[in-house]
Amino acid sequence: MAKLFNSILTRTQIVYNYYKGFMSAPPVCRHSASSALFILLFIFLNIHLYGQEQVEQNTGTFNVYLTTQAGLFIRDSTIGASGTPQYDHQLYGSETWLDTRYSNWGFDLGLRFDIYHNSNLINPQASFNKQGIGRWFIKRDVEKLGFEAGYIYDQIGSGIIYRAYEQRNLGLDNALYGLKINYQLSDRWRVKAFSGKQKKQFDTYESLIKGIGIEGFLKKSDTAAFSWAPGFGFVNRTLDDGSMNNLLATLATYQKEDQFLPEYNNYAWTLYHQLLWKRWSMYLESAFKTTDVLNDPNGNRKNASGENILGPKFINKQGHVIYGSLNYGARAWSISVEGKRTSYFGIRTRPQEEANNGLIHFVPAMSRQNSYRLLSFYQPATQDLGEIAFQGQVSLSLTDQWNITAHHSTINDLNGTKLYREYLMESTVIQSEDYTFILGVQHQQYNQQVYEGKPQVPIVKTITPYLDFTKQFNETHALRIDLEYMSTRQDQGSWTNLLVEYSIAPRWIFSASDMYNIAPVKGRKNNYYTSGVVYSKDGTRAGIQYVRQRAGIVCTGGICRYEPAFNGIKFNIESRF
Amino acid sequence: MNKYLGLVFMIICMSCSEVPVVLPIGSGPSTGAYTQNVLIEEYTGVRCQNCPAGAKTLEELKIIHGERLVIVSIHGGFFAQPPNLENKLRLDNTSGQELINIFNQPLGYPSGMINRKVFESQSSRFLGGNFWAGYVQSEKIKAPALGIELDIQHTPAQKQIRIECDVHGLMDLSGEPLRLSICIVENKIKDAQLTPTGVDTAYIHNHVLRTFVSSIQGDVLKPIVVNDKKTYTYSATYPTMWNPDQLAIVAFIHNPGPSYEVIQVVEKKVK
After folding, report:
1. Helices of type H across A82-171
2. Which of residues 199-218 of B touch A (CB under 8 A)?
3. Residue B156 has what DSSP assignment?
4. Alpha carbon distance A565, A562 (integer Å)
């Protein structure tokens, strides 16, 4: 190790001198794509050369993951697919992530090249056109001590006080740009500490985020039925001067009764544990946040003339989240129950950020993750300011081939106002090597006024029966038909969805679908066709689709965003080298 | 184990008290004949239920900053069209659409561009209402690089407006390829607007962009040097449905693309 380190130091000096000769000033370690690339390639180069010279028998692993999604935009004003640069004049947009990983000598190194070409992923109404190093990291564990530097993805507990994560399909990349150190205190306990700034596309926010987490895993023996995994976490965010001054200027415009003095520092801590006993598992987490500035999107304040202003307003509140889940799984049946109470619990890099921007934590959503199109039409997003929610699911295996699932979700705000209800029954019959038959029905009640900010609209009530049938003709050929019908008299009215998919394993999937607003509340009826083909070989999966897609709210894992209407051709490639 | 936990708790429980911050007061320094004014171009629409709150926020800022804050409300984009069934007028126009073609649409409405600038730690020119007050304040305290004076002659019979725009150099900007943009805005237009409590048919719209008198990208200026004064003259006629008592001229000098940053702005009523 010492030899390796000395070798790197020597090469550092050589390359530094060489580099200096071309530059008027010595290289400075700044947060820029070029310097990051230089540092990482330099480390790569040294370690790689050292490996070739000194440790010929030692081979590392090098992986490359490529993800590309591109779209040809074809204007169709009848569904709202118009009026953006992509439809008006750019005609094409794409996003690519080329993720490389190298592991050797105990180091993990990563470099990701991100390309956004006329992309509408960051802002669906605009065009984002940048490329560069989207992520780099270096990671090493030496006995009990380990570190990771660069862009770090991590979380404490279930993420309620801190979660640095990526959700590409929503345009989210909340990596922490900084340093994490972890230490194994004993066989059962480990501690980690981190500090950095949150990533913002190819830049960072200026606020500082620091934290510490301690986790344990206690089990008497490998065969013991009982285990306990407790944990504690603490996170501090310090506002930068620019954000604070901006915030103070806004608060100065408020009337005296609405004014308050914010603080630079916000503190949040959480205590959590998971118990496993035979077939039971229980998770409990309780988090608390000190008084901090939150943006109330439905605030009410008076202006100097005494008029009410209904709209975004800063408030200064303490917050908490209590979250728990209980699961039991037997051979013939299983049950899971979850509950959550949230009160003024939103932590952002700065309070001015809205929607999904600048979130440094993640509160789990309390609704079923539905994969069928019409079942996931209305998805409730987590409400930072306050909600009380429960959900439960029971699954029964009546025979070896027949399963029944019942699910219920209920979400209210802290005043008892109904936000969301879901009732679902699903029957699945699997006749192995012959067919799979899924039949179900879902009922939803969705408070569109709260979740989508639409004023004076009634609660959307839906009843959605669905059927999913897959016929396996032989070992490779299968036909799948998915039929859904959503009945509602609110919002956009009733919809149908039909999907036909023919697969020739393991290479080909051909699909065609049509989503149709069969009984619109207003406006014209539209067909939203999709048809395409997906080809898979080795580690590569490529697809091409014609897509005509309505505008709507898309939610993943409780995080939602507006997705504009699309009409055109989409290409996708996912490959692992 | 306990000693480690004790150490962690000790660190956490260390004093967390801060020296309290102070809310800013006053409107900032203004020296000489000219002050640095600030332009905010608000993107709004009659179907945007949060835009009335944004408009009231702007009016509050206007009370605080007076003539040093110039507001232009641009109706356009997906919250402007199609309008509410109750709307009798059309507030979006080709000038607004051309601005959207240049700057794109913001992610959410209302959004505002302040001096068309991408501020540090921001990735877009468009800023939500939570940022407006702070950036208006920080832009206003700068020393002005030039001054603008407007002289307006109105001929009601012909519905014609003649605009003389004097540009005074306070700093040497001769190397800057600056441009002059001039537009007409109208206040107190009564028409429907969606609000959080439904459609308000008697809503009053202020600072509504009507049209650009100059080209939408701005007209190229002659080089500006210290103590130099140059005059640019424009004329425009307006349609009968516009109320001349509520019309105002906004003139601003800015960089061309890709910067677009506004250097100075003034507003003057037609009558």
Report:
1. 85
2. none
3. G
4. 10
A to B CB pairs, distance under 8 Å:
155
CB contact under 8 A, B131 and A246: yes
Residue pointed to by tokens 């699997």: A430
Q: The whole model's pTM is what?
A: 0.83
Which residue shows structure tokens 């007409």? B184
> Roughly what angle, to the nearest 10 degrees, separates helices B129-140 and A241-251?
100
pLDDT tens by residue, A57-83: 567 899 999 999 999 999 998 888 887
Nearest CA in chain B to A259: B23
Instruction: Write out the two tokens for A294.
Output: 């939150």
Question: Bridge-partner residues for A178, per DSSP?
Answer: A150, A196
Segment A207-255, tens digit of pLDDT: 999 999 999 999 988 889 999 999 999 999 999 999 999 999 889 888 8
d(CA A62, CA A301): 57
Token pair 């199109």 is at which residue?
A: A373
Strand boundaries in B191-228, DSSP class E:
193-195, 198-200, 204-205, 208-212, 219-220
B 30-59 residues with CB < 8 A to A? 49-50, 52-54, 56-57, 59
- Is residue A390 a contact partner of residue A337, using CB atoms and an 8 Å limit? yes
Does an H or E element contain B95, and which? helix B94-103
Mean pLDDT of A454-474: 93
Distance CA A452, CA A378 (A): 10
Q: Say which of A189, A250, A304 has its CB closest to residue B130.
A: A250
Q: What is the pLDDT of residues A401-424, one digit of tens each?
A: 999 999 999 999 999 999 999 999
Whole-angstrom Cα distance, residue A263 to residue A237? Answer: 10
Q: Which of B77, B70, B71 is nearest to B93 (CA)?
A: B77
Report A:455-474 residues touching B (Cβ under 8 A): 455-456
Across the interface, whether the CB atoms of A312 and B194 are under 8 A apart is answered no
Q: Which ipTM score applies to this complex? A: 0.81
Given a cut of 70, whether residue B168 has pLDDT beyond it is yes
At A444, which amino acid appears? Q
Q: Is B8 exposed, middle or buried (0-12, 13-18, 19+ CB in 10 A)?
A: middle
CB contact under 8 A, B18 and A264: yes
- Write the residue in B5, B53, B104 that is nearest to A311 by C-beta: B53
Residue B65 has pLDDT above 60, yes or no: yes
d(CA A137, CA A115): 18
